[in-house]
Protein backbone atom coordinates (compact mmCIF):
# COMPACT_ATOMS: atom_id res chain seq x y z
CA UNK A 1 0.00 0.00 0.00
CA UNK A 2 1.52 3.31 -1.10
CA UNK A 3 1.37 6.51 0.96
CA UNK A 4 -0.14 8.60 -1.89
CA UNK A 5 -3.08 6.16 -2.06
CA UNK A 6 -4.08 6.64 1.58
CA UNK A 7 -7.10 8.69 2.60
CA UNK A 8 -5.03 11.16 4.64
CA UNK A 9 -4.58 14.93 4.45
CA UNK A 10 -2.08 15.94 1.77
CA UNK A 11 0.20 17.53 4.38
CA UNK A 12 0.49 14.19 6.19
CA UNK A 13 1.22 12.29 2.98
CA UNK A 14 3.80 14.91 1.95
CA UNK A 15 5.51 14.61 5.33
CA UNK A 16 5.97 10.86 4.95
CA UNK A 17 7.02 11.06 1.31
CA UNK A 18 9.51 13.85 2.03
CA UNK A 19 10.89 11.71 4.86
CA UNK A 20 11.55 8.89 2.39
CA UNK A 21 8.56 6.77 3.42
CA UNK A 22 6.58 5.93 0.31
CA UNK A 23 4.90 2.65 1.23
CA UNK A 24 3.61 0.80 4.26
CA UNK A 25 4.91 -2.49 5.62
CA UNK A 26 2.38 -5.36 5.37
CA UNK A 27 1.27 -5.13 9.05
CA UNK A 28 0.71 -1.38 8.64
CA UNK A 29 -1.32 -1.93 5.46
CA UNK A 30 -3.38 -4.58 7.28
CA UNK A 31 -4.17 -2.08 10.05
CA UNK A 32 -5.33 0.50 7.48
CA UNK A 33 -7.53 -2.12 5.77
CA UNK A 34 -9.00 -3.04 9.17
CA UNK A 35 -10.18 0.55 9.67
CA UNK A 36 -7.34 2.28 11.55
CA UNK A 37 -7.91 5.69 9.93
CA UNK A 38 -11.70 5.62 9.76
CA UNK A 39 -12.96 8.39 12.03
CA UNK A 40 -10.29 8.19 14.71
CA UNK A 41 -7.50 10.38 15.98
CA UNK A 42 -4.07 8.95 15.25
CA UNK A 43 -0.70 9.57 16.85
CA UNK A 44 2.18 8.89 14.50
CA UNK A 45 5.74 8.59 15.68
CA UNK A 46 8.66 8.44 13.30
CA UNK A 47 11.95 7.09 14.55
CA UNK A 48 14.99 7.75 12.38
CA UNK A 49 18.43 6.42 13.12
Provide the helix percentage: 25-40%
Described by strand count, sense and barrel closure, the largest sheet is: none
The assigned structural class equals: mainly alpha
Strand content: under 5%
Summed up, the helix count is: 2
Inertia-based shape:
globular
Query: Termini separation (Å)?
Result: 24 Å
Order of helices and strands: HH
What's the count of strands? 0
What integer value in Å does the Rg equal?
Answer: 11 Å
> Spans with pLDDT under 50 lasting ≥5 residues?
none
The average pLDDT value, as a whole number, equals: 85
Topology:
Elements: H1 10-18, H2 26-33
Summarize the structure.
With 49 residues, the protein is mainly alpha-helical. The chain has helices at residues 10-18, 26-33.
Describe it for me?
With 49 residues, the protein is mainly α. It has a domain at 3-33. Helix content is 35%, strand content 0%. It is built from 2 helices and no strands.
Keywords:
49 residues, mainly alpha, 2 helices, 0% strand
